[in-house]
């Protein structure tokens, strides 16, 4: 099958690699413009663009696909992308974490020029967690199960009919990083199966999303990073794991801001009735026990300013010898 692929991050690149390995011909890649990142703030290509370049696949990087955009340069780039897309022969369009909204004229073009229209890989069991951050919000909210939905796209925000769904259990120690990798593999597998079925003439069963159970996964913002120790231990634990790897949870101790990367709820720990939320009340072999508004959390992995990720026990070693009471606080 000839595929137009639109995506940007590693989650999308994994699906792109799987489609390529399955023998599908990717005739065009749409991905977001190169962004500055890293300590040197150098321009970096997206994982999708890097794979496309390695395999001599044409790449377009418009900042928008809206041909009516007010900015002349952006509007011209969007019009050029549309014209190029209209000029090529393809069977289906696959969209995975692209980061740009596909306007109706692009969806219409995909349906008109492609035999099978436009499909999306979404990392949730729709209609739960439509939107930008389904993986993070599922962990943060304590969902027991999540999954991947292959959706026939329409103009709404993740509102199209589903054609294939697969689920995964969320483990008690899951981080966004670990769940991302498992969902990316599942999404790639389901997308390959979807296109394989279409290639063999299978008529896909389209299931409209129910009107109940709709939730929205708002984009993760950096101001969500700071830990509120007044929350319950369960809430703090879920938040820490949900914000790994981005942006990481933070809290201050003795004027230094630390990052928190992993945690758990200890099965047994001696409680301190007089402890304040945010106070370190003890240590395990590698972790640190911290009092929350309700219950105690075990911090497993931390990072000092300018330092490397390490066990919480090792990270706090200096403070253990210098301070009688250690208490993390919000800035």
From TrEMBL:
<dbReference type="InterPro" id="IPR005793">
    <property type="entry name" value="Formyl_trans_C"/>
</dbReference>
<dbReference type="Pfam" id="PF02911">
    <property type="entry name" value="Formyl_trans_C"/>
</dbReference>
<dbReference type="InterPro" id="IPR002376">
    <property type="entry name" value="Formyl_transf_N"/>
</dbReference>
<dbReference type="InterPro" id="IPR001555">
    <property type="entry name" value="GART_AS"/>
</dbReference>
<feature type="domain" description="Formyl transferase C-terminal">
    <location>
        <begin position="219"/>
        <end position="319"/>
    </location>
</feature>
<dbReference type="InterPro" id="IPR041711">
    <property type="entry name" value="Met-tRNA-FMT_N"/>
</dbReference>
<comment type="function">
    <text>Attaches a formyl group to the free amino group of methionyl-tRNA(fMet). The formyl group appears to play a dual role in the initiator identity of N-formylmethionyl-tRNA by promoting its recognition by IF2 and preventing the misappropriation of this tRNA by the elongation apparatus.</text>
</comment>
<feature type="domain" description="Formyl transferase N-terminal">
    <location>
        <begin position="1"/>
        <end position="195"/>
    </location>
</feature>
<dbReference type="Pfam" id="PF00551">
    <property type="entry name" value="Formyl_trans_N"/>
</dbReference>
<dbReference type="InterPro" id="IPR005794">
    <property type="entry name" value="Fmt"/>
</dbReference>
<keyword id="KW-0648">Protein biosynthesis</keyword>
<dbReference type="InterPro" id="IPR036477">
    <property type="entry name" value="Formyl_transf_N_sf"/>
</dbReference>
<dbReference type="GO" id="GO:0004479">
    <property type="term" value="F:methionyl-tRNA formyltransferase activity"/>
</dbReference>
<dbReference type="InterPro" id="IPR011034">
    <property type="entry name" value="Formyl_transferase-like_C_sf"/>
</dbReference>
<protein>
    <recommendedName>
        <fullName>Methionyl-tRNA formyltransferase</fullName>
        <ecNumber>2.1.2.9</ecNumber>
    </recommendedName>
</protein>
<dbReference type="InterPro" id="IPR044135">
    <property type="entry name" value="Met-tRNA-FMT_C"/>
</dbReference>
<comment type="similarity">
    <text>Belongs to the Fmt family.</text>
</comment>
<keyword id="KW-0808">Transferase</keyword>
<dbReference type="GO" id="GO:0005829">
    <property type="term" value="C:cytosol"/>
</dbReference>
<feature type="binding site">
    <location>
        <begin position="124"/>
        <end position="127"/>
    </location>
    <ligand>
        <name>(6S)-5,6,7,8-tetrahydrofolate</name>
    </ligand>
</feature>
């Amino acid at each position: 099958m000839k595929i137009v692929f639109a995506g940007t991050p590693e989650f999308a690149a994994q699906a792109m690699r799987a489609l390529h390995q399955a023998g599908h011909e990717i005739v065009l890649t749409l991905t977001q413009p190169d962004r500055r990142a890293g300590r040197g703030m150098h321009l970096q290509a997206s994982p999708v663009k890097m794979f496309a370049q390695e395999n001599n696949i044409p790449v377009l990087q418009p900042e928008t696909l809206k041909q009516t955009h007010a900015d002349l340069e952006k509007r011209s780039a969007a019009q050029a992308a549309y014209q190029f897309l209209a000029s090529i022969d393809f069977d289906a369009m696959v969209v995975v974490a692209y980061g740009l909204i596909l306007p109706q004229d692009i969806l219409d073009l995909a349906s008109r020029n492609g035999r099978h229209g436009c499909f999306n890989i979404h990392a949730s069991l729709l209609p739960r967690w439509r939107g930008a951050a389904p993986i993070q919000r599922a962990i943060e909210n304590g969902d027991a199960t999540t999954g991947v939905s292959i959706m026939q796209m329409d103009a709404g925000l993740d509102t199209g009919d589903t054609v294939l769904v697969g689920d995964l259990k969320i483990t008690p120690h899951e981080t966004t990083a670990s769940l991302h990798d498992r969902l990316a593999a599942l999404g790639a597998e389901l997308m390959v199966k979807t296109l394989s079925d279409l290639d063999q003439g299978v008529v896909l069963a389209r299931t409209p999303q129910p009107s109940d159970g709709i939730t929205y996964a708002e984009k993760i913002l950096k101001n969500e990073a700071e830990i509120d120790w007044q929350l319950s231990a369960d809430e703090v634990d879920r938040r820490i794991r949900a914000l790994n790897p981005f942006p990481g949870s933070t809290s201050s101790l003795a004027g230094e801001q630390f990052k928190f990367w992993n945690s758990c709820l200890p099965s047994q720990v001696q409680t301190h009735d007089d402890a304040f939320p945010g106070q370190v009340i003890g240590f395990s072999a590698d972790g640190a026990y911290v009092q929350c508004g309700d219950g105690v959390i075990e911090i497993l992995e931390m990072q000092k300013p300018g330092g490397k990720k390490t066990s919480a026990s090792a990270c706090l070693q200096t403070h253990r010898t210098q301070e009688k009471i250690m208490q993390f606080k919000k800035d």
